[in-house]
Amino acid sequence: MANKEALRELQGRLAERLHEVKTQERVQSWLAVEAGGCGFLFPLSEAGEIFQCGALVRVPHASPWFLGVANLRGVLAGVIDLGRYLGLRGGASGDAAEATEQDRVIAFNPSLDVNAALRVDHLAGLRNASQLSLMPDDGVARPGFVGARYRDAAGRIWVELRLALLARDERFLRIVGAL
Taking every annotated instance into account, which residue ranges of this chain make up the domain CheW-like (predicted)? Predict the structure, then answer.
């Protein structure tokens, strides 16, 4: 019960913050999450509703990172384990032993027109450009959906993931695993 109340409070704060962001000067803002031990930033304009991890219907022959299909407020969405998709952790598809109370599912914004959601290990709140320092390009090749890298005041590195570009990534769209 306390978890549901905490989630409602967080969603309320996020809704307030989203409203503030829409009425304020355009400042780059993100939803900060953790997956596979790394910090990621989802642009607020591309992130959708946040859900607790619930029941998933597994999909036969899917890649290990494709956890299954969930009913998210009446919308069927494919749920992808972000840590596995990015190669930050292994494990069998739908391994329930890995799920924790902190795990959340972040739906893609409906404006992206993709019925998908990302399972993450932990929500880390909201961030904006004034809280982060842009790190110089290190020359490492990354997929097109990976944006800039930032460092916060505590020295933690955060990597921007552009969900709109991720939703069009060829590998992301091919959920069938090796047969």
Answer: 27-172
Total structural domains within the chain: 1
pLDDT, tens digit, 9 for 90 and up, residues 112-121 = 999 999 999 9
Residue 118, domain extent: 27-173
**Residue 141 carries which side chain, given as an amino acid letter?**
A
- Residue 56: inside a domain: yes
| 117 beta partners | 79, 107
The pLDDT tens digits of the residues spanning 143-164 come to: 999 999 999 999 999 999 999 9
Instruction: Give 54-102 pLDDT, tens digit per residue.
Output: 889 999 999 999 999 999 998 999 999 999 999 998 765 445 445 677 8
Is residue 21 situated within a structural domain? no
Long-range contacts of 73-79 (CB under 8 A, 24+ apart): 73/49, 75/107, 75/115, 76/115, 77/107, 77/108, 77/115, 77/116, 77/117, 78/115, 78/116, 78/117, 78/175, 79/105, 79/116, 79/117, 79/118, 79/119
Residue at 125 is within a domain: yes
Residue 20 in any domain: the answer is: no
